[in-house]
User: Fold this.
Amino acid sequence: MKIQIINGPNLNLLGKREPEVYGKKSFDEYFQVLTEAFAQHEIIYFQSNSEGAIIDKIHEVGFDVDGIVLNAGAYTHTSLAIADAISAVSCPVIEVHISNVHAREAYRQHSYLAKNCLGVISGFGLESYRLAIQGLELN
Assistant:
């Protein structure tokens, strides 16, 4: 399988940003662990703080990869444009969150993306990405 991971705003600061919520490991460190655990798959990583760049990446890969693992960060709760991009492509998308968004502020408990995704995984730390890849394997 070819799997695209897309991380949204502020996720480039993992390991530094609010470690009590998001942990102490950078995504680059975790990505190495993830690619070793799923060596049978081609896993590609992209991160942007820009909504437009995330949409462009979904359009670019959404017809060619076997699945997208998307952590859109705060755009999850605000972006109809990313939701529309997900619905426009043919590959399945799994929405992931490192923290349990349903145990946080009320505004984080709504996702504009979820209805267009195969599933949503939330609250398992960085392991949410591993669970998402396993979900794509089952699809």
About this structure: Residues 84 and 116 are 8 Å apart (CA to CA). The chain has one domain: 2-138. The longest strand covers residues 2-7. The beta strands are 2-7, 42-47, 67-71, 93-97, 119-122.
